[in-house]
Amino acid sequence: MADAVERAACGEGVGVLVVGGPGMGKTSLLREAVGCAGGRGFHVVRNLPDHSGLEVVGDLPVSFSVDGCRFPVARLAEWLQDLPATRSPVLVALDDVDRFPEPARRTVAELARTTRSVAWVATAGEAPPAEHPGATTVELSGWSTATVAEVVARRFDAVASVELEALLARAAGVPELVIGVVDGLVAEGRAQVVGGQVRVDSRHLPRRVHELVHRRLNSLSAKAWQVLRVASMLGPHFDLSDVSDLVGERTAMLLPELDEILAAGVLSAFGDHFAFRHDLVWDVVVDSIPEVLRTALRNDIDRVVGRRPVTRESRPDEAKRGSHAVLAVGGLAAAGRYAEAVRLARDTLEHPVHSASALELEGLLAHLLLWRGESEEAVTLAEKACARSASAPTVAAATAVRLVARSLTDPQLARHEAAQVSAAPTATDAVVATSVLARTSWAAGDLVDGLQLARHAVRDGGGHPWWGAWLSLELVDKLGQLGELAEAEVLLDSIGGHHDQWALASAPGRVAIERARLRARAGRWSDAVAQVRAGLGTAKESGCPIVVPAALAVLAKAALENGELPAAVQHVRHAAAVAAEAAVLPAISCDWVDLRITATTHGARAAVHALETRLTGLATSPVLYAEEPGAAAWLIDLARTVGSTELATTALDMIEHLAAANAGLPAVECAAAHARGLHDGDPALLDRAARQHVDAWAADHAREALATHAQAPAVEPGWDRLSDTQRTIARLAGAGLTNQQIAHRVLLSPHTVNYHLRGLYRKLGISSRVELARYV
């Protein structure tokens, strides 16, 4: 927020859209923006609580007003124009912009595109309006299990007990609810540190949580509140038809109340099935019903619906409960509702469940947690399933989850375990182990072996109902990097039929994201952006961050290609934030784009400094040169600009070693020819690279280098006698820079620059900058 305010203060028009569900902190960020802008002397305009118009915060001279400094959105343009020409910058802060009428949203969107020195900061629910395409979107997601554990550790200097973990899990990572639970327990004196663990006296929710939930539901009409309370007695998951029967009204008559409840962010809907988004909220709603009414409602449910309600006081028998839970969790997963599926599985496993159902639920939960980026917990659950089960298929399935999850957090250990497992010829865990070995071989620079192993995994397990799609997508990734785009597209088209009944065969959204990466490699940027946004939408809807950084890397590249640097920076930062919170598929392209952005915005020397500090290891990673075939040549270009022979040598050695170790891969050999041609100034090699590169960006870079070489004059023999620093200074001086400007570029004093100029004059046998110009 501070960055948006700062940019507006410098005369830019800035738009920021903060997206997230209730309790995620959107309004807090908006208040932060208002406070920051007020401290900088901005004029601040914000919406009225009922979204009927806008109001000016503080004293501000205006030539018209309605009810003081209040006016409708339609008059905002007039209000801005009426300000003095010497006005201060303006912040327009709009909370829940998606609740504005459509004409008002269009007015705001149009003004945001055309005004300068105005910061537009808005919040929206999880389905943001489409009228703000130019705004930088900040998506707020729930806290991970690790983040919640950190909150507890900071507050108590101890770890949460099992009882407290279960209580916090019901908050589903919503920051407001998590803090409400922690603060409420402390205020009521119910949390005690015993033996390094935070223990609670019961799982009853503190009063503060009840207050938070009721405050969120205060906007509901009396009838909507009645419908929600009746629905809560059916359990955390219910059918709309059951609610309709209980309240004695046709389903169509309940639509206004359902719209209210859904707008409050309390329920999720898929088809005719609804679910409370957070078990904690369900608890509060149930507790709001007096006990005598609960008894009456249970009788009504038994009479009208024909079954007993699912409440904390009345549970089905273990076997029935377990089998129903497996079907319910699978159904939620199939609908892409991973967060709800995880919550239901965890809630079920907290109670007595038949052993067979418990094992199946733990396997489902481990698989879901893998796609949600919670790899460590997925490994723990998978290991538990392996230890408890005597069933070979169950052990194989759990081992497969464990190997993939481990490969995201500890590739070396995953490689060791996969090598042991892959001895079996056809079992599920063996084909997944082969795929994991393919990924780790690829990361080590053994591309031929990695490709062969990936093909074997698809050959042996491509039709597997649980893992076939994942194995195929892993092969698509490698084929795309090697420029085999046609084969990769055909394989992608074949994946649709391999999904299992619960759609767990691949991380949600990954098919579209892999297709986007192929389109980006071919230079089809508009297609790539469309595909990646579709994939991101699926991943976000499912609560699956594992593929998000790879998708954001495509968007960052597209933004950089179009010269939209702020958007590219935002995508890279977003990817880093996701990767810090979850175990995700490696996306070295994010670091690559970060480096290119640094070079573009701060210069070559800053980019080299980044390689030596925060991007350490990027220039020596084999994955970079496989993923980005133009990387070596670009790094050599960068090294020449700053006079770093070490960086140029490193990049050339890395790509030539990769090509030598993987003979027969045309894409890698082409990348090596490109780098050597640039390094040696060989037009034949550059021409080969320009013609043979499949990657559009790398081909463009080779063509530019070839054109530059064709225009350059022949180099005089004396040029070879100059040091790298003298060559850099000579180029800058020949370009017309003064000694002071050169000193700033090469980080030397003007006196030292002058010394180097006199030295290179002697070596070249010249006496002026005019003569120097013919060399550069």
From TrEMBL:
Keywords (A to Z) from UniProt: DNA-binding, Transcription, Transcription regulation
Annotated ranges, domain HTH luxR-type: 715-776
Alphabetized PROSITE patterns for the sequence: HTH_LUXR_2
GO BP terms in the entry: regulation of DNA-templated transcription
Sample GO molecular function, one term: DNA binding
Pfam families per the UniProt record, alphabetical: GerE
Classification via PANTHER family: DNA-BINDING TRANSCRIPTIONAL ACTIVATOR DEVR_DOSR
Name under which the protein is recorded: Regulatory LuxR family protein
Organism, as annotated: Saccharothrix variisporea
